[in-house]
Amino acid sequence: MAQLRIALAQVDTTVGDLDGNAELVSSWTKQALARSAHLVVFGEMTLTGYPAEDLVLRRSFVAASAAALERLAVRLAEEGAGEIAVVVGYLDASPTPAPAVGRPAGEPQNCVAVLWQGRVAARSAKHHLPNYGVFDEFRYFVPGTTFPVFRLHGVDVGLTVCEDLWQEGGPVAVAREVGVGLLLCINGSPYEQGKSYHRDELCARRAREAGATLAYVNLVGGQDELVFDGDSLVVDAGGEVLARAPVFAETLLTVDLDLPEGAGTGVGPETGPDGPVDAGDGTTMAVSRVVLAADPLPAWEPRPATVADRPDPAGELYAAVVTGTRDYVRKNGFRSVALGLSGGIDSALVATIAVDALGPDAVHTVAMPSAHSSQGSLDDAAELARRQRTRHSVVPIEPTVAAFHAALAAAGGLHGLAAENLQARVRGTLLMALSNEHGHLVLTTGNKSELATGFSTLYGDSAGGFAPIKDVSKTNVWALARWRNARAVARGEVPPIPEEIIVKPPSAELAPGQLDSDRLPDYSVLDAVLDDYVSHDLGRAELTAAGHAPETVDRVIRLVDLAEYKRRQNPPGPKVTSKAFGRDRRLPITSRWRERDHSAG
Length: 601
Ligand SMILES: Nc1ncnc2c1ncn2[C@@H]1O[C@H](COP(=O)(O)OP(=O)(O)OC[C@H]2O[C@@H]([n+]3cccc(C(=O)O)c3)[C@H](O)[C@@H]2O)[C@@H](O)[C@H]1O
Ligand SMILES: Nc1ncnc2c1ncn2[C@@H]1O[C@H](COP(=O)(O)OP(=O)(O)OP(=O)(O)O)[C@@H](O)[C@H]1O
Ligand SMILES: NC(=O)CC[C@H](N)C(=O)O
Hints:
Elements: E1 2-10, H1 18-34, E2 39-41, H2 59-78, E3 85-93, E4 108-116, E5 119-125, H3 137-140, E6 146-152, E7 155-161, H4 163-166, H5 171-178, E8 182-187, H6 195-210, E9 213-218, E10 220-223, E11 226-229, E12 233-235, E13 241-244, E14 251-259, E15 277-278, E16 284-293, H7 313-331, E17 337-340, H8 345-358, E18 363-367, H9 375-388, E19 391-394, H10 398-409, H11 416-438, E20 441-442, H12 448-453, H13 474-490, H14 499-503, H15 523-535, H16 540-545, H17 550-562, H18 564-568
Parallel strand pairs: 1-2, 2-3, 6-16, 7-8, 8-9, 17-18, 17-20, 18-19
Antiparallel strand pairs: 1-14, 3-4, 4-5, 6-7, 9-12, 10-11, 12-13, 15-16
This protein binds nicotinic acid adenine dinucleotide, adenosine-5'-triphosphate and glutamine.
C-alpha cells in the first residue's frame, strides 16, 4: 500500500475570467500545500469557468485558455508549488481529428490537465458529453478518446470528467481494465432538488466498478441560471463515503488515503495495456501513462477525514436560491438590489433571500400602494422591512396610475384587465427608474407556478434583471418561508417573515377583493398538475390517468401552453428542479399543438 494526502478544492470560479480563476487555483493550491497535500484537484473547466457556452466556439478563447494553463504551470512552480500535483479543468483544442463525430483537429475539448514541476505533465479530454437538459456539449466539444494515468508517490491515478461517471462504459470501464488505485472525477454538476442522493449512489457504484477509491470534486457557486452545490466527496473502492465537503461553500477537503501501489514501472506494457482498450461503450480508448513520482512516501499517521452533514431538503433549496442570487448580483458587478414589497408571500421571500445573500443594507424594498392595496398588506410589508432592516421606502402609485388613465381617456380609456395590469406596469417602471438612478439590480418576485400559468404582467411585475424564485413552486414558496422562520426561531432570532404574510390568502390586489383563487386552481392542486405536466412531460391522457381532474388538466395545460411567449421574456433565475423553464424545456412559441387524448383520434 501507499499513502497520499489529497485535497479537493471546491471553489467558485467566474466564466471568462481566466486570470481570476488562475489566481484561485494558485491561492487554493498554496492552502493545500500548507496542509502538506500531495495532490490538489479542482473542478471541471475551472480555468475558464463553466459552462462557458458559445465562448467555447471562439478560437481566441480556446487559445487563451491553453496559454493560461501553460502560464499557470510555470507560476505554480515559481510560487513553490511545483511538487504538489495540481489537477485542473480547462478548455483546449483537440490535437487530432475526431472521425467518429466527423470533426477535424483543432476543435474545442473539455479538458483536464495535471500540472507538476512547472509543466503540463498530462492532459486529456472528457469522453462522455452530456447533451440533454441544460447541457449542449455535442454543440461544443469533441469527445476525448484517451484515458490518462499518472503515477504519484507509487499510486496510479486515473482521470475522468463529470459525465464520464453518468454513462455506462468509457473511462470507468478502462480504469478497471488498467487497474488504478485512485480515480479522480472533476465536475461541473449543477444543483437540483434531490440530485445529491443520485450522485452518492453513482459515485459508490462507479468506485466499485473501477475497483478504486473515487474522489469527486464539484464546483460551487452560481453561473447565470445554474447553481453548483459542491458536495464533493471521496468514496472507497467498496463505495463507502470516506469524506464529504459542506454544500454551497468554498472549501478544501483534505483526505489521507491508503491506496494500492501501482505495478511495474508505471509506463508501457510492463504496467498494463497502453494500446486501445475496449471501453465497453462501442469505442476504444488509448491509455496514456506518465510517472510524476515513482516511489511511495514514508508512512505517516493519517488524520481523520471530515464528513460534512447535509442540510435538510428545504435548507438545501434555500441555500441554492441564496447562492444563485448572491453570485448573479456579485459577478455582474451590482452592489444592491431593489424589489417591490407588497406584503404578499412572494416578495417577502425574495426580500429575505436577498438579505441573506447580500446583507440588509444592499436590499432596497419599495412599497407601492394603489387604491386596492389593503392596510394589512402595507403594514405587513413595513413590519418585514423593520425586522430585516432593509432600506425601505413607500411610493404610492395612485397619482401615476391616474395620469396614465387621463392620458388614455381620449383613446377610450382603460378597463378591466388592462386597468389592472397598468398598476403592475407603473410599479415596474418605478423600480426600473430607481435601478437606473441608483444602480440597483431589480429582482422580480414571480414563482414557478405563476411563470407556468402566465400569471404576471408583462413589463410589469415580470420586469427586472434576476428572478430568484422562478423555479420554486408556490407550494415551495410557503415551505421555504416557514423553514426560514423556523431556522430563526431555532437560533433564538426573530422570524424574518411576519406570520400574517404566510397565512393570508394570496392576492395580486389589482382589483377590490381580488384573490388568486378567482383565476387559478388552488395552488396545491395546480402545483400537482404542473409537476406532472411540466417536470414529467405527461400528456393529457396520462395526467387524467394519474388522478388529476380532467377539467383542471385542460385548464392548466391551456394556461401553460399559452404562456410560452411570456416565459421567453422572463429574466434568468436559479434552476433548482430537474426541469426549470428555459433551457431545460424548449418549446416553440408559435405552435398549434394542443394536448388532448390523441389516442381517441
Ligand atoms: N403569442 C404572443 N407573443 C407575444 N406577445 C403576446 C402573445 N400573446 C399575447 N401577447 C402580448 O401579451 C399581452 C398580455 O400579457 P399581459 O400584458 O401580461 O396581460 P395578461 O396576461 O392578459 O394579464 C396578466 C395576468 O396576470 C395576472 N397577474 C398580474 C400581475 C400580478 C399577478 C400576481 O399575482 O403575481 C398576476 C393578472 O391577474 C392576469 O391574469 C397582450 O396584450 C399582448 O401584447
Ligand atoms: N403594493 C405593492 N407595493 C410594492 N410592490 C408591489 C405591490 N403590489 C405588488 N407589488 C409587486 O408586484 C409583485 C406581484 O405582486 P402581486 O401582489 O400582484 O402578486 P403575488 O404574486 O401574490 O406577489 P406577492 O406574494 O409578493 O404579493 C409583488 O411580488 C411585488 O414585487
Ligand atoms: N458537466 C457535466 O458533465 C454534468 C452532467 C452530469 N450528468 C451532472 O449533472 O452531473
